[in-house]
Amino acid sequence: MPYYNVEHSFPLNAHQKQDLAERITKLHAKAFTTPSIFVQVKFYQQDASTHNHFVGGVSRDETTNRILGFVRSSAERKKEHFDKLAEQIENAWYVALGERADEGEQEKKSETPQMAKDAKELLSVGFVGGLVGREKGFNLPEVSPRTQLANSNCD
């Protein structure tokens, strides 16, 4: 199952989390023909005062916003697919935070001060691909056109 960790130092309200989770779910499901019921999104609020961030072994006081997807890889899932999905997820972040217009909407003029914009910046969107694993006591099957066809009939 695809699993997305949203680590954020910018405080997200319930509506923003719901909006972003729905967008990530739809984008992943469409990109890889995955039933949306399988896509999981979890939010982790970061707090600089906990000193949980280290760079080169040195504690850093700053935190960032980033999204990391743990997904299954296969020969059919090319780098271009992940690049496109990363760009779409990045856009979804800014739409959910009200910094960009959604598709079909008139372009928004952000009146957010620069300091607040910096706090909302999404540093990265990344993916960790895996070929094998276990879930709920079962070995995961390889992703193949046949598996994708079966998944497409689950929705």
Question: What features would you describe in this structure?
Answer:
By secondary structure, this protein is α/β, with parallel strands linked by helices. Helix content is 34%, strand content 25%. The chain contains four helices and eight strands; from the N terminus they run βαββββααβββα. It has a four-stranded mixed sheet with strand order 2-1-5-6, covered by helices on one side. β1, α1 (14-32) and β2 form a beta-alpha-beta unit. Residues 146-150 have low confidence and may be disordered.
CATH level-1 class: Alpha Beta
Our measurement of the CA-to-CA distance between the termini, rounded to an integer number of angstroms, reads 15 Å
- Give the full name of the CATH homologous superfamily: Macrophage Migration Inhibitory Factor
Shape: globular
Roughly what is the average pLDDT, rounded to an integer?
Answer: 83
How helix-rich are the residues, as a percent range?
Answer: 25-40%
- Unreliable stretches (pLDDT < 50, length at least 5) are 146-150
Run of helices and strands: EHEEEEHHEEEH
Lateral arrangement of strands in the main beta sheet = 2-1-5-6
Count of the separate structural domains: 1
Radius of gyration: 17 Å
CATH topology: Macrophage Migration Inhibitory Factor
Structural class: alpha/beta
List keywords for this structure.
155 residues; alpha/beta; Macrophage Migration Inhibitory Factor; 34% helix; globular
List the helices and strands and how they pair.
Layout: E1 3-8, H1 14-32, E2 40-45, E3 53-55, E4 58-60, E5 65-72, H2 79-96, H3 114-120, E6 122-130, E7 134-135, E8 138-139, H4 145-152
Parallel strand pairs: 1-2, 5-6
Antiparallel strand pairs: 1-5, 3-4, 7-8
